[in-house]
Amino acid sequence: MSAFTEPAPTDELLSGFGTHDTAPTSQQHRRAGITLVVASALVVAGGGIGWWLLAPGSSSGPAAHVAAFDSPQQGGDKLDADDADQLQVDPASTRLVVRTPAAATYVGRSVSGRLCIMQLPTGDVSTETCGPDRKGVVLTVGTARGGQVRLVADGGPTPAATEGWKSAGANVWTHD
Q1: Is residue 9 domain-resident?
Q2: I need a labelling partner for 14 at 20 to 30 A (CA). Which of 26, 85, 115, 155 fits?
Q3: Alpha-carbon distance 133 to 67, whole Å?
Q4: How many CB atoms lie within 10 A of CB 79?
Q5: Distance between CA 117 and CA 79 in Å, rounded?
Q6: Domain range spanning residue 28?
Q7: Are strands 147-152 and 172-175 parallel, antiparallel or unpaired?
């Protein structure tokens, strides 16, 4: 005699399952089609919003205001050809913001629309820092040894004088 002589419990629980004609009705086809269209629309909309938020140069708020951009570019605001080739900044957007014994410092916008600060030391390699073009952004370039320059767009925190920062003009501070 076998220990299991009763029918499997799944037969009782799922009685009639799979025994009927299961061809989908036209209403089920219509519902599946509508579901597919709605799901596709959500994927496309979500992708578009994601691209807009993450695309280079995009920002999540108002654009940064930096006083240097209030005036048109002058001759002294332009980068020489060698520096312009090395940096990702749009040469037509640059403005000289401060000249220290260590370097000349410019602000500009990258070709992708980001806000940048560039330090061009005499006889040394140029450096730049770029960030999102939005209100209150803070960008710092340079080293503690060679001097730092900080750009603070309107609405950003003012660097502390107690930490050695000195105002060098609107939106610009230096640290020796």
Answers
A1: no
A2: 26
A3: 14
A4: 20
A5: 13
A6: 21-54
A7: antiparallel
- Phi, psi of 10, rounded to the nearest 5 degrees: -65, -30
Structure tokens at 2: 């076998």
State the Cα–Cα distance between residues 38 and 32, nearest whole angstrom.
10
In whole angstroms, how far apart are CA 23 and each of 14, 33, 149, 154?
Answer: 19, 16, 73, 66
Ramachandran area for residue 126 (φ above 0: left; ψ -120 to 50: alpha; else beta):
beta
Per-residue model confidence as pLDDT tens digits over 45-69: 666 665 555 444 444 445 789 999 9
Cα angle 92, 146, 80 (rounded to 5 degrees) comes to 25
- Based on the fold, state whether residues 38 and 112 are members of the same structural domain: no
Can you tell me the distance from the alpha carbon of 58 to that of 75, in angstroms, rounded to the nearest whole number? 29
pTM over 0.85: no
**Same domain assignment for residues 50 and 108:** no
**Whether residues 114 and 169 fall in one domain:** yes
